[in-house]
Amino acid sequence: MGQERNTGIEIGLYTLGDICVDPTTGQTVSAGQRIKEIMAAATLADEAGLDVFGVGEHHRLDYATSSVPVVLSAIAQKTKRIKLTSTTTVLSTVDPVRLFEDFATLDLLSDGRAEIMAGRGAFIESFPLFGYDINDYDALFSENIELFLKLNENERITWEGNFRSSLKNAEIAPRPLQNQIPVWVGVGGTPQSAARAGRLGVGMALAILGGDPVRFKPLVELYRNAGTAAGHDLEKLKVGVTGHGYISKTTQQAKDEFYPYYSNYWYSVNLQRGMTGEKISKSDFEYMTGPDTALFVGSPQQIVEKILRQHELFGHQRFMAQIDIGGIPFKKIAEGIELLATEVAPIVRRETSK
Protein backbone atom coordinates (compact mmCIF):
# COMPACT_ATOMS: atom_id res chain seq x y z
CA MET A 1 0.00 0.00 0.00
CA GLY A 2 2.73 2.48 0.98
CA GLN A 3 4.59 1.99 -2.28
CA GLU A 4 1.43 2.28 -4.35
CA ARG A 5 0.56 5.58 -2.65
CA ASN A 6 3.79 7.16 -3.86
CA THR A 7 3.51 6.30 -7.56
CA GLY A 8 1.45 8.27 -10.04
CA ILE A 9 -0.41 11.43 -9.10
CA GLU A 10 -1.59 12.25 -5.59
CA ILE A 11 -5.34 11.98 -5.04
CA GLY A 12 -7.23 13.74 -2.30
CA LEU A 13 -10.24 15.66 -1.07
CA TYR A 14 -10.97 19.17 0.06
CA THR A 15 -13.87 20.94 1.75
CA LEU A 16 -14.94 24.55 2.20
CA GLY A 17 -17.22 23.59 5.09
CA ASP A 18 -20.34 25.15 3.55
CA ILE A 19 -23.52 24.86 5.64
CA CYS A 20 -26.53 24.39 3.35
CA VAL A 21 -30.08 23.20 3.84
CA ASP A 22 -30.38 19.62 2.55
CA PRO A 23 -32.83 20.20 -0.35
CA THR A 24 -34.29 16.70 0.00
CA THR A 25 -35.04 16.84 3.75
CA GLY A 26 -35.09 20.54 4.63
CA GLN A 27 -32.63 19.85 7.47
CA THR A 28 -29.48 21.91 8.18
CA VAL A 29 -26.57 20.63 10.27
CA SER A 30 -25.01 22.88 12.91
CA ALA A 31 -21.50 24.31 12.53
CA GLY A 32 -20.31 21.92 15.25
CA GLN A 33 -21.77 18.91 13.48
CA ARG A 34 -20.30 20.05 10.15
CA ILE A 35 -16.80 20.28 11.66
CA LYS A 36 -17.16 16.84 13.25
CA GLU A 37 -18.22 15.42 9.86
CA ILE A 38 -15.21 17.07 8.19
CA MET A 39 -12.95 15.40 10.76
CA ALA A 40 -14.68 12.06 10.13
CA ALA A 41 -14.25 12.48 6.35
CA ALA A 42 -10.53 13.20 6.79
CA THR A 43 -10.16 10.12 9.00
CA LEU A 44 -11.91 7.95 6.40
CA ALA A 45 -9.73 9.39 3.63
CA ASP A 46 -6.59 8.64 5.66
CA GLU A 47 -7.67 5.08 6.46
CA ALA A 48 -8.62 4.48 2.81
CA GLY A 49 -5.14 5.52 1.63
CA LEU A 50 -5.85 8.87 -0.04
CA ASP A 51 -2.91 11.28 -0.18
CA VAL A 52 -4.12 14.72 0.85
CA PHE A 53 -7.01 16.45 2.65
CA GLY A 54 -7.72 20.18 2.44
CA VAL A 55 -9.87 22.59 4.44
CA GLY A 56 -10.91 26.00 3.10
CA GLU A 57 -11.36 29.35 4.85
CA HIS A 58 -14.48 31.53 4.90
CA HIS A 59 -15.65 34.07 7.47
CA ARG A 60 -19.43 33.78 7.18
CA LEU A 61 -22.22 32.13 9.15
CA ASP A 62 -23.00 29.77 6.26
CA TYR A 63 -19.52 28.20 6.46
CA ALA A 64 -18.08 26.26 9.40
CA THR A 65 -14.31 26.58 8.88
CA SER A 66 -12.94 30.06 9.50
CA SER A 67 -10.03 28.82 11.65
CA VAL A 68 -8.37 26.35 9.29
CA PRO A 69 -5.16 25.60 11.30
CA VAL A 70 -7.31 24.68 14.33
CA VAL A 71 -9.45 22.27 12.29
CA LEU A 72 -6.38 20.73 10.60
CA SER A 73 -4.64 20.34 13.97
CA ALA A 74 -7.65 18.42 15.28
CA ILE A 75 -7.60 16.25 12.13
CA ALA A 76 -3.85 15.67 12.63
CA GLN A 77 -4.58 13.88 15.91
CA LYS A 78 -7.08 11.52 14.22
CA THR A 79 -4.96 10.66 11.17
CA LYS A 80 -1.58 9.06 10.48
CA ARG A 81 -0.38 9.58 6.91
CA ILE A 82 -2.55 11.96 4.91
CA LYS A 83 -1.11 15.38 4.04
CA LEU A 84 -3.04 18.31 5.52
CA THR A 85 -3.44 21.55 3.59
CA SER A 86 -5.46 24.75 3.55
CA THR A 87 -7.66 25.13 0.43
CA THR A 88 -7.21 28.05 0.40
CA THR A 89 -5.77 30.46 2.93
CA VAL A 90 -6.88 34.01 2.07
CA LEU A 91 -3.33 35.33 2.21
CA SER A 92 -4.25 38.97 1.59
CA THR A 93 -5.94 39.30 5.00
CA VAL A 94 -3.76 37.27 7.36
CA ASP A 95 -0.46 38.20 8.99
CA PRO A 96 2.19 35.99 7.32
CA VAL A 97 4.14 35.61 10.58
CA ARG A 98 1.09 34.31 12.47
CA LEU A 99 0.21 32.09 9.51
CA PHE A 100 3.70 30.60 9.43
CA GLU A 101 3.70 29.95 13.18
CA ASP A 102 0.27 28.26 12.98
CA PHE A 103 1.27 25.94 10.12
CA ALA A 104 4.72 25.21 11.56
CA THR A 105 2.91 24.14 14.75
CA LEU A 106 0.53 22.00 12.65
CA ASP A 107 3.58 20.47 10.96
CA LEU A 108 5.05 19.49 14.34
CA LEU A 109 1.71 18.10 15.58
CA SER A 110 1.23 16.06 12.40
CA ASP A 111 4.82 14.74 12.10
CA GLY A 112 5.55 16.74 8.96
CA ARG A 113 2.26 16.66 7.00
CA ALA A 114 1.37 20.38 6.79
CA GLU A 115 0.98 22.31 3.54
CA ILE A 116 -0.49 25.68 2.56
CA MET A 117 -2.51 26.58 -0.49
CA ALA A 118 -2.68 30.38 -0.64
CA GLY A 119 -5.07 32.49 -2.67
CA ARG A 120 -6.49 35.98 -3.00
CA GLY A 121 -9.97 34.70 -2.13
CA ALA A 122 -13.17 34.51 -4.14
CA PHE A 123 -15.03 36.10 -1.22
CA ILE A 124 -14.04 39.46 0.28
CA GLU A 125 -15.67 39.41 3.73
CA SER A 126 -12.28 39.01 5.43
CA PHE A 127 -11.08 42.46 4.24
CA PRO A 128 -13.34 44.64 6.42
CA LEU A 129 -13.34 42.00 9.17
CA PHE A 130 -9.57 42.24 9.68
CA GLY A 131 -9.14 45.89 8.76
CA TYR A 132 -7.78 45.66 5.21
CA ASP A 133 -8.70 47.77 2.19
CA ILE A 134 -10.18 45.84 -0.73
CA ASN A 135 -8.35 48.25 -3.05
CA ASP A 136 -5.10 46.62 -1.87
CA TYR A 137 -6.42 43.16 -2.91
CA ASP A 138 -3.49 42.25 -5.15
CA ALA A 139 -0.73 44.30 -3.50
CA LEU A 140 -1.45 42.64 -0.13
CA PHE A 141 -1.25 39.17 -1.68
CA SER A 142 2.03 39.94 -3.47
CA GLU A 143 3.70 41.30 -0.35
CA ASN A 144 2.38 38.57 1.95
CA ILE A 145 3.40 35.63 -0.24
CA GLU A 146 6.92 36.99 -0.64
CA LEU A 147 7.23 37.53 3.11
CA PHE A 148 5.82 34.07 3.84
CA LEU A 149 8.36 32.39 1.54
CA LYS A 150 11.18 34.24 3.33
CA LEU A 151 9.83 33.13 6.73
CA ASN A 152 9.75 29.58 5.38
CA GLU A 153 13.47 29.77 4.54
CA ASN A 154 14.91 31.64 7.54
CA GLU A 155 14.88 31.25 11.34
CA ARG A 156 15.66 34.96 11.71
CA ILE A 157 14.48 37.65 9.38
CA THR A 158 14.95 41.36 8.74
CA TRP A 159 12.24 42.69 6.46
CA GLU A 160 10.32 45.82 5.53
CA GLY A 161 7.08 46.19 3.55
CA ASN A 162 4.06 48.45 3.12
CA PHE A 163 1.31 46.71 5.06
CA ARG A 164 2.73 45.46 8.35
CA SER A 165 5.38 46.51 10.85
CA SER A 166 8.97 45.85 9.82
CA LEU A 167 10.96 42.95 11.24
CA LYS A 168 14.49 43.39 12.57
CA ASN A 169 16.43 40.19 13.19
CA ALA A 170 13.15 38.65 14.37
CA GLU A 171 13.09 35.01 15.51
CA ILE A 172 10.43 32.99 13.66
CA ALA A 173 9.32 30.09 15.83
CA PRO A 174 8.66 27.26 15.92
CA ARG A 175 10.40 25.81 12.89
CA PRO A 176 8.45 23.09 11.06
CA LEU A 177 9.52 19.45 11.07
CA GLN A 178 9.82 19.57 7.27
CA ASN A 179 12.71 21.58 5.90
CA GLN A 180 10.07 23.99 4.54
CA ILE A 181 6.27 23.94 4.50
CA PRO A 182 5.15 23.13 0.92
CA VAL A 183 3.33 26.12 -0.59
CA TRP A 184 0.85 26.13 -3.47
CA VAL A 185 -0.98 29.10 -4.97
CA GLY A 186 -4.63 28.65 -5.93
CA VAL A 187 -5.31 29.94 -9.45
CA GLY A 188 -8.83 30.45 -10.76
CA GLY A 189 -8.02 31.34 -14.36
CA THR A 190 -5.97 34.55 -14.61
CA PRO A 191 -2.69 34.43 -16.55
CA GLN A 192 -1.08 36.88 -14.09
CA SER A 193 -1.67 34.48 -11.18
CA ALA A 194 -0.25 31.51 -13.11
CA ALA A 195 2.86 33.47 -14.10
CA ARG A 196 3.38 34.69 -10.53
CA ALA A 197 3.17 31.15 -9.12
CA GLY A 198 5.83 30.11 -11.65
CA ARG A 199 8.14 33.03 -10.85
CA LEU A 200 7.87 32.26 -7.12
CA GLY A 201 8.62 28.58 -7.71
CA VAL A 202 5.61 27.38 -5.69
CA GLY A 203 2.99 24.81 -6.71
CA MET A 204 -0.04 25.91 -8.75
CA ALA A 205 -3.47 24.52 -7.87
CA LEU A 206 -6.01 25.12 -10.63
CA ALA A 207 -9.67 25.45 -9.64
CA ILE A 208 -11.45 23.88 -12.63
CA LEU A 209 -15.13 23.88 -11.71
CA GLY A 210 -16.73 23.35 -15.11
CA GLY A 211 -16.53 23.64 -18.87
CA ASP A 212 -13.88 22.08 -21.09
CA PRO A 213 -10.61 21.72 -19.16
CA VAL A 214 -8.57 22.29 -22.33
CA ARG A 215 -8.97 26.06 -21.79
CA PHE A 216 -6.61 25.80 -18.78
CA LYS A 217 -3.74 24.30 -20.77
CA PRO A 218 -2.24 27.72 -21.67
CA LEU A 219 -2.14 28.60 -17.95
CA VAL A 220 -0.13 25.46 -17.17
CA GLU A 221 2.31 26.26 -19.99
CA LEU A 222 2.59 29.87 -18.81
CA TYR A 223 3.26 28.70 -15.24
CA ARG A 224 6.01 26.29 -16.26
CA ASN A 225 7.61 28.78 -18.66
CA ALA A 226 7.63 31.54 -16.03
CA GLY A 227 9.07 29.12 -13.47
CA THR A 228 11.92 27.87 -15.63
CA ALA A 229 12.67 31.44 -16.83
CA ALA A 230 13.04 32.42 -13.15
CA GLY A 231 15.55 29.62 -12.67
CA HIS A 232 13.34 27.05 -10.93
CA ASP A 233 13.73 23.33 -11.56
CA LEU A 234 10.87 22.04 -13.75
CA GLU A 235 10.62 18.95 -11.49
CA LYS A 236 9.69 21.21 -8.57
CA LEU A 237 7.00 23.16 -10.45
CA LYS A 238 4.00 21.08 -9.38
CA VAL A 239 0.50 21.42 -10.79
CA GLY A 240 -2.67 20.40 -8.96
CA VAL A 241 -6.25 20.24 -10.23
CA THR A 242 -9.18 20.85 -7.90
CA GLY A 243 -12.84 20.46 -8.78
CA HIS A 244 -16.32 19.47 -7.72
CA GLY A 245 -17.15 15.77 -7.78
CA TYR A 246 -19.69 13.09 -6.95
CA ILE A 247 -19.20 9.36 -7.47
CA SER A 248 -21.81 6.61 -7.50
CA LYS A 249 -22.07 3.09 -8.89
CA THR A 250 -23.33 4.29 -12.27
CA THR A 251 -23.06 7.64 -14.02
CA GLN A 252 -26.84 8.02 -14.19
CA GLN A 253 -27.19 7.30 -10.47
CA ALA A 254 -24.47 9.85 -9.71
CA LYS A 255 -26.24 12.51 -11.79
CA ASP A 256 -29.65 11.77 -10.26
CA GLU A 257 -28.31 11.90 -6.71
CA PHE A 258 -26.03 14.92 -7.15
CA TYR A 259 -28.33 17.21 -9.15
CA PRO A 260 -30.45 18.61 -6.26
CA TYR A 261 -27.34 19.30 -4.15
CA TYR A 262 -25.30 20.86 -6.96
CA SER A 263 -28.17 23.09 -8.00
CA ASN A 264 -28.70 24.00 -4.33
CA TYR A 265 -25.00 24.80 -3.89
CA TRP A 266 -24.78 27.29 -6.76
CA TYR A 267 -28.08 28.88 -5.80
CA SER A 268 -26.66 29.45 -2.28
CA VAL A 269 -23.29 30.74 -3.54
CA ASN A 270 -24.97 33.17 -5.94
CA LEU A 271 -27.19 34.46 -3.11
CA GLN A 272 -24.08 35.02 -0.99
CA ARG A 273 -22.62 37.10 -3.82
CA GLY A 274 -25.74 39.21 -4.07
CA MET A 275 -26.98 37.50 -7.22
CA THR A 276 -30.41 35.92 -7.44
CA GLY A 277 -31.55 33.63 -10.14
CA GLU A 278 -33.03 30.32 -11.12
CA LYS A 279 -31.64 27.02 -9.91
CA ILE A 280 -29.68 25.05 -12.51
CA SER A 281 -32.09 23.26 -14.86
CA LYS A 282 -31.92 19.50 -15.41
CA SER A 283 -30.94 20.02 -19.06
CA ASP A 284 -28.15 22.46 -18.16
CA PHE A 285 -26.89 20.03 -15.53
CA GLU A 286 -26.90 17.21 -18.09
CA TYR A 287 -24.67 19.34 -20.32
CA MET A 288 -22.41 20.40 -17.41
CA THR A 289 -21.72 16.76 -16.47
CA GLY A 290 -20.94 15.60 -20.02
CA PRO A 291 -17.90 13.38 -20.69
CA ASP A 292 -15.74 16.26 -21.98
CA THR A 293 -16.37 18.65 -19.07
CA ALA A 294 -14.40 19.24 -15.89
CA LEU A 295 -17.24 18.35 -13.50
CA PHE A 296 -16.23 15.03 -11.91
CA VAL A 297 -19.66 13.42 -11.66
CA GLY A 298 -20.26 9.80 -12.62
CA SER A 299 -19.30 6.19 -12.12
CA PRO A 300 -15.76 5.34 -10.98
CA GLN A 301 -14.89 4.58 -14.61
CA GLN A 302 -16.20 7.98 -15.76
CA ILE A 303 -14.16 9.74 -13.05
CA VAL A 304 -11.03 7.78 -14.01
CA GLU A 305 -11.48 8.81 -17.66
CA LYS A 306 -11.92 12.49 -16.75
CA ILE A 307 -8.85 12.55 -14.50
CA LEU A 308 -6.72 10.77 -17.10
CA ARG A 309 -7.89 13.12 -19.87
CA GLN A 310 -6.82 16.07 -17.75
CA HIS A 311 -3.52 14.37 -16.96
CA GLU A 312 -2.86 14.12 -20.71
CA LEU A 313 -3.53 17.88 -20.98
CA PHE A 314 -1.59 19.09 -17.93
CA GLY A 315 0.76 16.33 -16.69
CA HIS A 316 -0.28 17.39 -13.19
CA GLN A 317 0.96 15.88 -9.92
CA ARG A 318 -2.18 16.15 -7.76
CA PHE A 319 -5.97 15.86 -8.07
CA MET A 320 -8.34 16.98 -5.31
CA ALA A 321 -12.14 16.67 -5.37
CA GLN A 322 -14.73 18.57 -3.35
CA ILE A 323 -17.54 16.07 -2.80
CA ASP A 324 -19.46 17.57 0.14
CA ILE A 325 -21.28 20.61 -1.26
CA GLY A 326 -24.86 21.82 -1.14
CA GLY A 327 -26.00 19.94 1.97
CA ILE A 328 -25.06 16.40 0.87
CA PRO A 329 -25.58 14.05 3.86
CA PHE A 330 -22.46 12.54 5.41
CA LYS A 331 -23.48 8.97 4.49
CA LYS A 332 -23.19 9.89 0.79
CA ILE A 333 -19.86 11.66 1.35
CA ALA A 334 -18.49 8.54 3.08
CA GLU A 335 -19.61 6.36 0.15
CA GLY A 336 -17.89 8.75 -2.26
CA ILE A 337 -14.63 8.59 -0.30
CA GLU A 338 -14.73 4.80 -0.40
CA LEU A 339 -15.31 4.72 -4.17
CA LEU A 340 -12.61 7.33 -4.84
CA ALA A 341 -10.06 5.42 -2.76
CA THR A 342 -10.84 1.86 -3.85
CA GLU A 343 -12.09 2.13 -7.44
CA VAL A 344 -10.65 5.37 -8.84
CA ALA A 345 -7.30 5.98 -7.14
CA PRO A 346 -5.60 2.60 -7.88
CA ILE A 347 -6.30 2.86 -11.63
CA VAL A 348 -5.32 6.54 -11.85
CA ARG A 349 -2.10 5.94 -9.90
CA ARG A 350 -1.19 3.00 -12.09
CA GLU A 351 -1.89 4.81 -15.36
CA THR A 352 -0.12 8.04 -14.35
CA SER A 353 2.98 6.28 -13.04
CA LYS A 354 3.79 4.83 -16.47
UniProtKB/TrEMBL annotation:
**An MF annotation (GO) of this entry:** oxidoreductase activity, acting on paired donors, with incorporation or reduction of molecular oxygen
Q: Transcription regulation among the record's keywords?
A: no
Which Pfam families does the UniProt record give?
Bac_luciferase
Ranges for domain Luciferase-like come to: 15-316
Q: Name one GO cellular component term.
A: cytosol
SUPFAM superfamilies named in the record: Bacterial luciferase-like (SSF51679)
Q: Which InterPro entries match?
A: Bact_Lucif_Oxidored, Luciferase-like_dom, Luciferase-like_sf
Q: Which Gene3D superfamilies match?
A: Luciferase-like domain (3.20.20.30)
Query: Where does the record place a coiled coil?
Result: none
Q: Does the keyword DNA-binding apply?
A: no
Q: Which UniProt keywords apply?
A: Monooxygenase, Oxidoreductase
Q: Which domain of life is it from?
A: Bacteria
State the name under which the record lists this protein. Answer: LLM class flavin-dependent oxidoreductase
The organism's taxonomic lineage, starting at the top: Bacteria, Bacillati, Bacillota, Bacilli, Bacillales
